[in-house]
Write a structure and sequence with these properties.
The complex is a heterodimer.
Chain A lengths: L8 E7 L4 E7 L12 E6 L6 E5 L5 E3 L8 E3 L11 H4 L15 H12 L3 H5 L3 H22 L10 H34 L11 E13 L6 E16 L2 E12 L5 E16 L3 E16 L16 E17 L4 E13 L2 E4 L2 E3 L5 E11 L1
Antiparallel strand pairs in A: 1-2, 1-3, 3-4, 5-6, 7-8, 7-16, 8-9, 9-10, 10-11, 11-12, 12-13, 13-16, 14-15
Helix pairs in contact in A: 2-5, 4-5
Chain B lengths: L2 H13 L3 E2 L2 E12 L5 E6 L4 E5 L5 E12 L2 H10 L1 E6 L3 E7 L8 E10 L4 E6 L4 E4 L5 E5 L4 E6 L2 E6 L4 E5 L8 E8 L2 E4 L6 E7 L2 E5 L5 E7 L3 E4 L4 E4 L2 E6 L5 E9 L2 E5 L4
Parallel strand pairs in B: 3-7, 3-9, 4-8, 4-10, 9-11, 10-12, 11-13, 12-14, 13-15, 14-16, 15-17, 16-18, 17-23, 18-24, 19-23, 20-24
Antiparallel strand pairs in B: 2-5, 5-8, 6-7, 19-22, 20-21
Classes of the chains: A alpha+beta, B mainly beta.
């Protein structure tokens, strides 16, 4: 999308049926390019009459006049995704895309400041209150995470309820902190681009990094344990709204003498809600674990304690919803509540596990990128 | 569209249930350990507190406690609890006792040892992942190594060698013995208090924490005391106080080593006024 110098204000591109394809914030000194599949469209430019136009395959349409021409080029991308069928195009129009290279270098540097200090990018781009709020919120969540990390020194205060609240608070605070950090970095670049995100529903490949957390009751009465599972997922979209791929790729390590566990899963799902920046997916799958131990203490029960090593396998079946919030076009924050039942012991490392057949819920937070 | 708010509501409800639900069971045990001719009992256990007491008028040791286990069903939990046991190996001079459970139950079983009752005349070694250890009245040699936890050993005659990754240590030798007990105590984080009531060696080292050592006499000692946050030596022939640093002295032949190092703490060595 190229926004030529000379226009100031909002512009809107819509299909012939009236569905908005792109909303542009035009500035005097910036340019943008919008890529559209072939079809009939209409554009509303600031301080100008609405105009209808058609895009032919491989063709381009230009609006504007010299000098300097406020130009909007409309054409299908040379190596872009396959245009959707006409029936899909109206409800799911192709999104407007902004290349990062279109941003001036100084603007990129300002946006990237949020990577170093949460909220700084927003402050440098004229959104002081928002940036300050992000910074204060981040510091608050860091404090909450640190405070809830350690149990009280007085063991009489470690009852089931208070430990559950403490560890649950730790899981929520750290999850929120990670989401806030990733989200504010994305937001800083969204501010630099000057428009809201529009996720492309025709993505082909998606990468996700997430942390699942849950609590379990300890074997010892009155105790609560914190379970967490960091993992990555690699997914593809073979048909509209349908995705499938490898998920929950992870490694878990017990304390010295325990077991080391390799984890990998398969996940398939369907996108049930699709808004511009908010998607909801429902999916399910299975994750497998292989645990290796060379500690005789955890050996084969039939071979007895002198068994030199053991290998265990388990499968965990799960169903989950995934709420994806796109702050920039390709990047999203993900919130993933999951229900699972293991068949065999599911290990989490640090000598913690969930037994076979135990119905369990866990909450995932993370980021995703799709291409 | 009603689907969206309902889905979002479902997300919120499920989010509040980040919890695993399982069955729990416990199994009490009284494990009699036949020590035969062995003079040394070695016990290895996962995280648990432990008290060791003398068992008079008996030839066997007695280990008392309980196993806790989780399972997806009550039946599986009971199966795990029953599968947990102790592996006892007799090496003639020593008997090794080690907590043991099947690999598929790892992470689902915990052990709580109430007490080990040990007949007289046996040395005792304990290797544990963590927990407080309390050994009283075992007059033979005691050797304890735990990942974390407080250690208290009292009534020693033949000496002790104890280590904890984090926690206070208290060692006290038997006042009535004529033996020269050798005491060695190391903690990475915690205070150490040693009451050496015999003419024996003392080695005490704390990573972060203070050390206090009481000895019966300064005769024939080789003294080295270091404290990053202060040193105090209060013996009849050596009296010195430093804000930080070390004191090194050899008195008489210097045959009894008193070596005290507080890497990030205060070190004090003084004479036992009761002896």
């Amino acid at each position: 999308m190229v926004v030529g110098p000379g226009y100031q204000g909002k512009a809107k591109v819509s299909t012939a049926q009236g569905d908005t394809v792109a909303e542009l914030d035009l500035t005097e000194s910036a340019r943008s390019t919008v890529y559209l599949p072939p079809g009939d469209y209409r554009i509303d430019l600031p301080e100008a009459d609405a105009e209808s136009f058609s895009v032919e395959p491989g063709g381009r349409v230009r609006f504007g006049e010299d000098p300097p021409p406020p130009v909007i080029e409309l054409a299908p991308p040379a190596e872009g995704p396959t245009p959707p069928k006409a029936s899909e195009r109206a409800p799911s129009p192709a999104p407007a895309r902004t290349g990062a290279g279109d941003l001036p270098r100084s603007t990129q540097r300002k946006a990237a400041a949020s990577v170093v200090v949460p909220g700084l990018g927003q402050m440098l781009q004229g959104q002081g209150p928002k940036g300050a709020g992000i910074l204060i919120g981040s510091l608050g969540l860091v404090a909450a995470s640190l405070l809830s990390r350690r149990p009280p020194a007085d063991p009489t205060r470690r009852d089931l309820l208070s430990e559950g609240a403490r560890l649950g608070g730790f899981g929520l605070a750290t999850g929120a902190l990670g989401m806030l950090y990733a989200g504010q970095v994305m937001d800083s670049f969204a501010v630099a681009r000057g428009r809201r995100a529009q996720a492309d529903p025709r993505w082909r490949f998606r990468f996700e990094a997430q942390r699942m957390f849950s609590l379990r009751f300890s074997p010892t009465p009155g105790g609560v344990d914190y379970l967490r599972d960091w993992s990555i997922s690699l997914l593809g979209q073979p048909a509209p709204r349908v995705f499938v791929g490898a998920s929950d790729l992870s490694v878990h390590v017990d304390s010295p003498g325990g077991a080391n566990t390799l984890q990998a899963g398969l996940r398939a799902g369907y996108r049930v809600v699709e808004r511009k920046a908010l998607w909801l997916n429902l999916s399910g799958g299975v994750l497998g674990q292989f645990s290796f131990s060379d500690n005789p203490r955890y050996g084969d029960p039939d071979a007895g304690p002198q068994s030199p090593s053991s290998i265990d396998a388990s499968a965990t079946f799960f169903a989950q919803s995934e709420l994806q919030w796109f702050i920039v076009d390709r990047w999203s924050l993900n919130l993933t509540p999951r229900f699972y039942v293991p068949v065999g012991t599911r290990r989490f490392g640090r000598d913690l596990a969930v037994p076979s057949g135990a119905p369990s819920f866990e909450l995932g937070t993370g980021v995703g990128a799709q291409f | 569209m009603a689907t969206k708010p309902l889905s979002l509501l479902a997300c919120v409800v499920a989010s509040s249930l980040a919890c695993s639900f399982s069955y729990r069971t416990e199994r009490n045990f009284d494990e009699a350990l036949d020590l035969g001719d062995a003079e040394h009992l070695i016990l290895r256990a996962p995280q648990t507190d432990l008290s060791v007491r003398p068992r008079e008028d008996a030839d066997t040791a007695l280990l008392r406690g309980r196993w806790y286990a989780l399972g997806g069903t009550a039946k599986v939990a009971e199966k795990h609890a029953k599968a947990a046991t102790f592996d006892v190996v007799d090496y003639d001079e020593s008997v090794s006792v080690e907590a043991y459970w099947p690999s598929d139950a790892h992470g689902l079983i915990e052990l709580a040892l109430d007490a080990l009752y040990l007949p007289p005349g046996h040395d005792f070694s304990f290797v544990g992942e963590g927990g407080d250890v309390d050994v009283i009245g075992i007059v033979e040699f005691v050797d304890v190594e735990v990942g974390w936890g407080e250690l208290r050993v009292a009534g020693l005659r033949e000496g002790a060698d104890v280590y904890t990754g984090g926690g206070d240590i208290e060692l006290r030798t038997d006042r009535t013995t004529a033996f020269a007990s050798s005491l060695r105590a190391i903690t990475l984080a915690g205070d150490i208090r040693v009451e050496q009531n015999t003419r024996g060696v003392v080695i005490a080292e704390a990573g972060v924490g203070d050390i206090q050592v009481r000895i019966p006499s300064d005769e024939n000692i080789s003294l080295y005391v270091y404290g990053a946050r202060g040193v105090e030596v209060d013996l009849p022939r050596v009296r010195q106080t430093l804000p930080s640093g070390e004191v090194r002295r050899q008195l008489d032949d210097g045959e009894i080593e008193i070596w005290v190092v507080a890497h990030d703490g205060y070190a004090r060595v003084f004479e036992d006024p009761d002896n």
